[in-house]
Amino acid sequence: VFALSILIARELIDDRATLLQEVMAGPIHDIGKLCVPPAILTKKTALTPSEIVHLRHHALAGYVLLTYFFGEHEILAARVARDHHERKDGSGYPLGNPIDNLMIDIIMVSDIYDALISPRPYRPVAYDNRTALEEITHQAVTGGISKTVTRVLISLNRRAKPHYSSCTLSSERRGLPPKDNVYGSKSEDSDDHA
To answer: Taking CA 160 as the corner, what is the angle to CA 155 and CA 165, rounded to the nearest 5 degrees?
Structure first.
């Protein structure tokens, strides 16, 4: 996520001093996962509703940890930890706030891309690159994530590396999610804490 965030930020942020300051927030965006039990992080089946709540808490936990560490509640690293699962249209979590911050957008898209193309306990096979890009493009077209950042990601994935402004976002899908993918599905088990 950090390396991809740097590559994307280099395309969108001209001032190198600002770039350095901004990208330093990337490596610790998921620090709140320290507060999530390993059994939830490594679970191979669908999460129960209370496990989903516990997992989603990592965003606020990261914000609290970083604001305490830095002694500053508005520091970018803490805001990135809190907001990297929010969405531009307000459909994300933990607070459901619409996001309009370039660096958070960059880390948000990088995090989604990494989650799709990397092996995960809940998915025996990662998304292939094309299908991952199609999923991210769908999220951009429907208003959840930044269209500009998505165009940069697509540009970086093209052999010719065209300027991102020349990349168009198509809603056409040719790929399929990996077989036995349980990400985003809820367990049928009863859960008294949901």
So the answer is: 35
Beta carbons within 10 angstroms of residue 153's beta carbon? 27
Give the pTM: 0.88
| Cα separation values, 184 from 48, 63, 68, 95, 120, Å | 11, 23, 31, 18, 13
User: pLDDT tens for residues 31-44?
Assistant: 999 999 999 999 98
Q: Identify the three-state secondary structure at position 87.
A: strand
What 8-state DSSP symbol labels residue 98?
Answer: B
Beta bridge partners, 47, equal 186
CA distance linking residue 97 with residue 115, whole number of Å:
22
pLDDT (tens digit per residue) in 104-113: 999 999 999 9
11-18: long-range contacts, CB 8 A cutoff, minimum separation 24: 11/152, 11/155, 11/156, 11/164, 12/102, 12/106, 12/148, 12/149, 12/152, 13/102
DSSP code for 122: T
Instruction: State the pLDDT confidence band at 190, using cuts at 50, 70 and 90.
Output: very low
Structure tokens belonging to residue 31: 């620090």
